[in-house]
Amino acid sequence: MRPEVAVRRIRADEWADVRALRLEAVSDPAAPLAFLHTFEEESAHDDGFWRDRAAHAADSDDAAQFIAESDGRWVGSATLLLREARTVDHHGRAVLTRRADVVGVYLAPDHRGAGILGRLVDAAGDWAGARGATALTLDVHRDNERARRAYHRLGFEPTGVTFTSSIGPEIEMRRDVAPAPRASGDD
């Protein structure tokens, strides 16, 4: 039996844990299909970068990072970015309407399939909903079948938007902020 898992927003003083989990995530075998940055790129950042990143994800009104913690160990993460409508492009696409984007999703391999992904996405959705968002969007690599299936089980559906990012062909998916019904083992 796995220990209890708590899901919560990070605190600014947890920057070293933010860094450690991100480096673990970009070291995962699926990382080339899941993350826009490599281990080498992420590990080159100094402590100030990680302090700023954690502070922004802990305290801002346009970004929030949620972690899953089990027995004192961070085992998962999802970040929510609120993007206002503007002419600035997002991965080569214009942001025409306000968006609530789920990014940086990671679960430690030994905690996949336990429903943690749904809890992280629900926490992000609750936070976004409290700020007026009505839907969550995310981008997933076309060839990342495991992630696409997991997101589909959480209520995400392809929007029909496809594009090519720095990691290759991607599919945009969307779901309403309200949690969708799901079976156990959603990730």
Give a short account of the largest sheet: 4 strands, antiparallel
- Structural class by sheet pairing and helices: alpha+beta
Radius of gyration, Cα only, in angstroms? 16 Å
**Strand neighbour order, sheet with most strands:** 1-2-3-6
The CATH fourth-level homologous superfamily: Gcn5-related N-acetyltransferase (GNAT)
User: What overall geometry do the principal axes of the alpha carbons give?
Assistant: globular
Q: How helix-rich are the residues, as a percent range?
A: 25-40%
> Count of DSSP helices?
6
CATH topology: Aminopeptidase
What is the count of distinct domains?
1
Nearest-integer average pLDDT? 88
Reading the helices and strands in chain order gives EHHHHEEEEEHEHEE
Instruction: Provide the CATH top-level class.
Output: Alpha Beta
Count of DSSP strands: 9
CATH architecture: 3-Layer(aba) Sandwich
Give a short summary of the structure.
The protein is 30% helix and 33% strand. The chain has 187 residues and is of the alpha+beta class. It has one domain (5-176): Aminopeptidase (3-Layer(aba) Sandwich), CATH 3.40.630.30.
